[in-house]
Design brief:
This protein is α/β, with parallel strands linked by helices. The chain has two domains: 3-175 and 210-253, 3-Layer(aba) Sandwich (Carbamate kinase), CATH 3.40.1160.10; 267-413, VC0802-like. It contains 13 helices and 18 strands. Strands 3-6-2-1-9-11-12-10 form an eight-stranded mixed β-sheet, with helices on both faces. It has a six-stranded antiparallel β-sheet with strand order 14-15-13-16-18-17. α1 crosses α4 (72-87), α6 runs parallel beside α8 and α10 runs antiparallel to α11 (327-342). It is globular. Bound molecules: adenosine-5'-diphosphate, aspartic acid and magnesium ion.
């Protein structure tokens, strides 16, 4: 008997039929003798609908009230799933985050889980029930409802698996695993049977939304066995046997030696949520970077890539990227607080950019990854605006219109293309 945490995302819970299918899958696992904790997202589109309602009321909704409201989507789906499972003759009970004491800090909209009281869940499991927990939400010390950021149900799933010492946390979604790149961008994307935590963290941080970043951090920290797999594939029969462990979905693992068929790069991530800011004609002397970036930091704006050009005639251009929704705020800060102070010529914003990144632990021991990347883009007339690198990734900023083309060319150039069949992407 294993204790398994299964998380089902929005598409997997997207209709009454889909919810009934989830119930059938949970039943198969339960009938095979496993203890099952299920974490669910809101039905697909519901969280966006709720956010839109809040925005129609206020351009900057009160964070506490926002969480109070946006968390309701999950409350609907836990109870619908509990009803569906009970109708199949299995004991089931649903709980909100607060009801199973998922305690978080008070940062509304992006709260962090601090503790979970596993006793109530264990008592239900011991009584033979399936436990269904609302993803994405918790409560702070004062009992206010908090939410964990978009995609936060993944983190609820992993945190519960860690708290319960689960044998595995299974993230059921609308693709059958983690691919070399988003399979919606190229049908040549290959499913990976394994990926290291380190690489998965990098992929998630660089824009692959298949797993929320914090869920991967959590899984790495608490060594939670984590698997991404499809809720649309009916072939798995609910037995947690060797065949399942070896073949189904993608396992996120600590084992570097066994990684990704020894590829130099494991995947290509991209992020459309980028915008570039250029401060032109700034005097090139010490203190300029800090004069530009300190007010940006004080305004709580995250900065990602940074480039300072070689100076000509004593002046230089200083460029950096921010999250796209922060662009207007960043431009306002620079125009109001910085431009005249440092004698800059002008401040320009550009939200027509994307970041593409190659990720792989194999890069550590292989020179030339960056040069093949730059060469491939150059051959295809794609201009690189910014570059940043680390031990296991190379990122470039390019014009958004070239995104799909660039991903496809790089995927081929780095030998990642699949040789057969097609990826299993629901709805494509
Ligand atoms: P859920 O609603 O189940 O949480 P998400 O939409 O959050 O699902 O995540 C699944 C999606 O992630 C897929 O449909 C796919 O388009 C996207 N995705 C991005 N990068 C990758 C990748 N490297 N491998 C697999 N899926 C990816
Ligand atoms: N429903 C939330 C969202 O759409 C959380 C999740 O699905 O993981 O972001
Ligand atoms: Mg998700």
């Amino acid at each position: 008997m294993a204790l398994i945490v299964q998380k089902y995302g929005g598409t997997s819970m997207g209709s009454i039929d889909r919810i009934k299918n989830v119930a059938k899958r949970v039943k198969r696992w339960h009938e095979n003798g496993h203890q099952i904790v299920v974490v669910v997202s809101a039905m697909s589109g519901e969280t966006n609908r709720l956010i839109d309602l809040a925005r129609q009321i206020s351009s900057q909704p009160d964070p506490r009230e926002y969480d109070q409201m946006v968390s309701t989507g999950e409350q609907v789906s836990i109870s619908l799933l509990a009803m569906a499972i009970k109708d199949l003759g299995i004991g089931a009970r649903s709980f909100t985050g607060g009801q199973v004491a998922i305690k978080t800090d008070t940062s509304f909209n992006k709260a962090r889980i601090q503790s979970i009281d596993d006793q109530k869940i264990r008592a239900q499991l011991d009584a033979g029930n399936v436990v269904i927990v609302a993803g994405f939400q918790g409560v702070d010390e004062e009992g206010n409802i908090t939410t964990l950021g978009r995609g936060g149900s993944d983190t609820t799933g992993v945190a519960l698996a860690a708290a319960l010492g689960a044998d595995e946390c299974q993230i059921y979604t609308d693709v059958d695993g983690v691919y070399t790149t988003d399979p919606r961008v190229t049908p040549k994307a290959k499913k990976l049977s394994k990926i290291t935590f380190e690489e998965m963290l990098e992929m998630a941080s660089l824009g692959s939304k298949v797993l929320q970043i914090r869920s991967v951090e959590f899984a790495g920290k608490y060594q939670v066995p984590l698997r991404v797999l499809s809720s649309f594939d009916e072939s798995n029969d609910g037995s947690f046997d060797e065949h399942f462990k070896q073949n189904v979905g993608t396992l996120i693992t600590i084992d570097e030696g066994d990684n990704m068929e020894q590829a130099i790069i494991s995947g290509i991530a991209f992020n459309r949520d980028e915008a570039k800011v250029v401060v032109r004609g700034v005097p090139d002397h010490p203190g300029i970077a800090s004069a530009i970036l300190s007010p940006i930091g004080n305004a709580n704006i995250e900065v990602d890539m940074i480039v300072q050009n070689i100076s000509t005639n004593g002046t230089t251009d200083f460029s950096f990227t921010v999250n796209r929704p922060d662009l207007d705020k960043a431009l306002a800060v620079l125009n109001n607080e910085v431009k005249d102070e440092i004698n800059a010529k002008e401040v320009i914003g550009n939200d027509n950019v994307v970041k593409i990144s190659l990720v792989g632990v194999g890069m550590r021991s292989h020179a030339g990854v960056a040069s093949l990347m730059f060469q491939t883009l150059a051959e295809n007339n794609i201009n690189i605006q910014m570059i940043s690198t680390s031990e296991i990734k190379v990122s470039v900023l390019i014009q958004e219109q070239h995104l799909e083309k660039a991903v496809k060319f790089l995927h081929t150039a780095f030998g990642l293309d699949r040789q057969d069949g097609a990826s299993k992407v629901a709805g494509v």
